[in-house]
Every structure is written in C-alpha cells, then in structure tokens.
Amino acid sequence: MSSPVTKVVIQPSYGKPETRRHWADTLDTPVPFHEPSYWDTLDPGERARLEDLHPAGKAHFWGATDKHDRRMDLLEPRDVVLLTGQRHVRAVGRVGCVLRNPALARALWRPDPRDCLWSNVFSLLEFRRTWIPYEEIWALPGFTTGDNFMGLRLLDATKSTVVLAGLGIEPAA
Fold it and tell me: What's the superkingdom here (predicted)?
C-alpha cells in the first residue's frame, strides 16, 4: 500500500505593500490565538483543533480568498506551503489547521472591511525562512521558465513530489 503524497501549495505572500503588512502581522511573529480578538471568532471545534496542533497557544497564519475554497478543502496537516514574493520562495511551512473563518481573517489582518475577501485561514506547524530563487523551481521537470506563480497554486502529485525532492524538503511522515 503506497503512502499518500504530501501536497505542495505555492502561495504568493509578499508582493503588494498590503500583503507585506499581512506577512508582518502573522508570519514574522507567531500569533497568540487565545487573545480575545482571535479566540472569540473561533467555534469550539476550531479552538480544539488549534490547541491540539499548537499547544503553546501561538501559531503563524496565512490565508486565501474564497475563490480558492476547493483547493483549500484538499489541504491536510503536514502538507507543504511555499510562501513566495520578490521572485523567491521566502519561507517554507507545513500546514496545520485549515479553517474557513472570514471573521478570524479580519481579526488577523485588519483589512479595510470592503476589501477582506479572505475566508480561508491556515496555521503553520513549521515555518522556516528561505531565499530560494524561482529559477531553482523553473529548473525542475514540469515547470516553465518565467512562471511567476501568481495566485494560490495547488500542485498535482507529480509536481509536488518533484518540488519536494528538488528543494530537499522531506515529505510528511
């Protein structure tokens, strides 16, 4: 019986000034999610899942808009996310808790109320800063030179395996 393939998501996260502010809010420093501004947005099941995966009560968070709901529904704990910006993979993380919670997204990133379209939020079990140029991914089989990885991209099993091996990332245990 074969083990399931660790999925890889390429997620833009450091492009526009607003996105860089979001990075500073929830990736530069883990978020203490027990604070009432976050905790009060969570239902009991979400609270339990976050506490189970992050017993210290803090986690790095990122998110995606509602147009990515179907892709987000496919993510599982320990899948890999490549957080990109400035033509580099700026960080590598492992998905923790995936939530569909627009109220939490608004609390985390405090956007203009007319602009917050994020409905998906995910915590990261691991978060490691990197500086991997896109050229390293473009050089892998199945990738195209010049692809700037716009929008959330969930790679298929073949490309996920290629990226994990090519960048030296261990698949989920």
Answer: Bacteria
